[in-house]
Specification:
Layout lengths: L8 E10 L6 E10 L3 E11 L4 E8 L6 E9 L3 E2 L3 E4 L4 E8 L5 E11 L4 E12 L6 E7 L5 E7 L7 E7 L4 E3 L2 E4 L5 E7 L5 E10 L5 E11 L5 E8 L4 E7 L7 E7 L5 E2 L3 E4 L2 H4 L4 E7 L5 E11 L3 E12 L4 E2 L3 E4 L4 E8 L6 E8 L6 E4 L2 E4 L4 E8 L8 E9 L3 E12 L7 E6 L4 E8 L6 E8 L1 H5 L2 E3 L2 H6 L7 E2 L5 E7 L4 E8 L6 E11 L10 E5 L5 E5 L5 E13 L3 E4 L2 E4 L2
Parallel strand pairs: 3-10, 11-18, 19-26, 27-35, 28-35, 36-46
Antiparallel strand pairs: 1-2, 4-8, 5-7, 5-9, 6-8, 9-10, 12-16, 13-15, 13-17, 14-16, 17-18, 20-24, 21-23, 21-25, 22-24, 25-26, 29-33, 30-32, 30-34, 31-33, 34-35, 37-42, 38-41, 38-43, 39-42, 40-41, 43-46, 44-45, 47-48
Protein name: Abnormal spindle-like microcephaly-associated protein ASH domain-containing protein
InterPro entries: Ig-like_fold
Organism: Chlamydomonas leiostraca
Length: about 600
């Protein structure tokens, strides 16, 4: 008979033997054992130093009695496991093989599992790879920079298993302690360290305890240092968009050059160098080096800030700044003069002190704001960009000086203010009209008059002079005005020339066409005039005076009579000779 086992173990069987004549029958119970005398396997382990990982090796018993398994470990001491395991009948029991490396690197060993009852042996070649050890703990220490030192105790375990001495190393300059520590037993030993940071911030490092044969235990250290007490308080004032200089004396106590890093709490309002280099003490004889920076506020009101000086050698020093931004007095623009109906202008420059784009808004306020304007009203500026704003003056009446205030700004950058004065002047002689045409033909020229007043104005248009008297120069408004006389305007002949009246809305323009039709070769001249009695603005309060009538009663009458304003345009017409046509020996002049 033959046996084809599916695995190692004991296979019970029963054989029935019967003779051919059926007279003899026998039963035979068999117990067959299948085993592999020697097999080899490989196991790989990976973990950090002093960390333990376990691999379970299954032990299968297919028999009906307990199976004893003996384990033999060889090689590195990093591997461990039980020496004997008993497996119940028909059960599977894991063999727990543990890898706990004491040092970084590769660790090799062997495990032999043998079954004495069957003589079977399985051999495992073991390879363990140990990485650097992880931190034993994370230690957090809170302290004040340049303040009172803080002491912290750490329990250091004995990783060697016998008395030893650790070498202590730390990569943070603000941490101090004994250079060595002795551990005598299996209990942890207390190590005291002192933390005295020189600058604020979060400092991270390591504290390592090294024993012989490459063994070590280490801790991660986190120092949370708050800022030190201020050296002093500096009070400073400045007007908005003005700069005030601040000087701080700094002394170098060392015999070599030191560079300090300068930090400002408000990089927009506080402007200064980012570093300050201090010469050696031997060169300065103790004389201080001045740190000069500027306070240039953008917004009105008090504020608090600071300036810090930091270096690895000297630590951190800072001064508290009590800042007060005063309202800036508006700047005065040069006075502007402009004729009524004309416009004068000047420009101002605005800048963006921010490192990001802003949009400024321009506005005009004050009693004379209607006569002034700022263009454009919206000014987009890129980071640290500049732009020009045009400030213009267009008087709305004759009389006193107009005054206004121009404000350009935005919420983030504050505002710039300018005061401006404008003086209105009576119109001078305007640009004239020149016409030229052949005798007997007609030409036309056009000019425009704009109502500069804030109220509707009744314009009286006249064309006078020799050219108007002869009718060669005439207003083309006449027929149009006659058709619209129902609206309260009309055309009349008064003495010499033509008179036309028209009501013009505020800011509206009136077109004034003049035609020239010469009758002979000569030059004709005339004067076009627009006369307006300054209208009363109903939106403005009026002044009145009390006058006594003949009967003794008091009557409220208006103040000074409104001014009469005249715009004059010289008009010149030149007659030209017509084309000469020769027909059958005769000469004629065509119109």
């Amino acid at each position: 008979m033959g046996l084809k086992p599916v695995g190692t173990g004991i296979y019970p069987a029963r054989v029935l033997l019967t003779s051919t004549n059926g007279l003899d029958t026998r039963v035979v119970d068999l117990e067959l054992t299948a085993q592999t005398m020697t097999q080899q396997f490989e196991l790989l382990f990976e973990c950090a130093t002093r960390q333990a990982i376990t691999q379970e090796v299954p032990l299968v018993n297919t028999g009906d009695s307990y199976m004893a398994v003996t384990a033999t470990l060889g090689g590195a001491k990093a591997f461990s496991g039980p020496r004997e395991v008993s497996v119940p009948p028909g059960a599977t029991v894991p063999y727990a093989l543990t890898f706990k490396p004491p040092t970084p690197g590769e660790h090799r060993g062997t495990l032999e599992l043998s079954i004495p009852s069957t003589g079977e042996r399985n051999t495992y070649n073991l390879l363990g790879k140990a990485a650097e050890p992880v931190a034993e703990a994370h230690v957090v220490v809170e302290a004040q920079a340049r303040g009172k030192p803080v002491t912290r105790s750490i329990a250091v375990p004995n990783i060697v298993g016998q008395p030893c001495e650790y070498q202590v190393m730390c990569d943070l300059s603000c941490v101090a302690g004994a250079e060595t520590i002795k551990v005598t037993g299996s209990q942890a030993t207390t190590y005291k360290l002192t933390v005295a940071p020189m600058r604020s911030g979060v400092l991270c490092g390591t504290l390592t305890f090294k024993a012989g044969e490459g063994q070590s235990v280490w801790y991660s250290i986190e120092v949370r240092a708050s800022e030190p007490p201020e050296v002093g308080v500096i009070k400073v004032e400045a007007a908005v968009h003005r700069a005030t200089a601040i000087n701080i004396p700094v002394v170098n106590p060392l015999d070599h050059e030191v560079t300090l890093t300068c930090h400002y709490s408000d990089p927009i309002a506080l402007l200064g160098p980012t570093t300050l280099t201090l010469p050696p003490k031997s060169e300065t004889q103790g004389a201080p080096t001045q740190l000069e920076f500027y306070y240039a506020p953008l917004e009105f009101g008090p504020a608090q800030g600071s300036v810090s000086l930091i270096s690895d050698e000297l630590g951190e020093f800072w001064y508290q700044l009590d800042m007060n931004a005063l309202p800036a007095a508006p700047r005065m623009l040069p006075p502007m003069n402009a004729e009524l109906g004309a416009r004068a202008k000047t420009t101002v420059v605005v800048s963006n002190p921010m490192d990001r784009p802003v949009t400024l808004t321009a506005s005009v306020s004050g009693p004379g704001a209607r006569a002034f304007g700022a263009t454009p009203s919206m000014i987009p500026l890129g980071p640290y960009g500049e732009a020009e704003v045009e400030v213009w003056y267009r008087p709305v009446g004759l009389g006193g000086t107009d005054a206004a205030r121009v404000v350009v700004g935005a919420r983030d950058v504050g505002s710039w203010e300018w005061d401006v004065l404008g003086t209105p002047e009576s119109p001078s002689l305007q640009e004239g009209l020149s016409l030229a045409t052949a005798v007997g033909t007609t030409s036309q020229a056009v000019t425009h008059w704009r109502n500069p007043f804030p109220a509707p104005a009744l314009a009286r248009i006249t064309l006078t002079g020799s050219g108007a008297d002869t009718g060669e120069l005439a207003l083309a408004l006449q027929q149009q005005q006659q058709r619209s006389s129902a609206s309260g305007t009309g055309t009349a002949q008064q003495g010499s020339g033509t008179v036309v009246e028209r009501l013009v809305s505020p800011g509206a323009s009136l077109t004034l066409p003049v035609v020239f039709c010469p009758r002979q070769l000569h030059a004709a001249s005339a004067e076009l005039a627009v006369t307006v009695v300054e209208p009363v603005d109903p939106s403005q309060p009026q002044s009145y005076v009390a006058e006594e009538e003949d009967d003794g009663t008091l009557e409220r009458a208006s103040g000074p009579a409104p001014a009469t304003v005249v715009w004059r345009y010289p008009v010149t017409g030149v007659a030209e000779a017509g084309q000469v046509v020769v027909t059958r020996g005769s000469t004629a002049t065509g119109g």
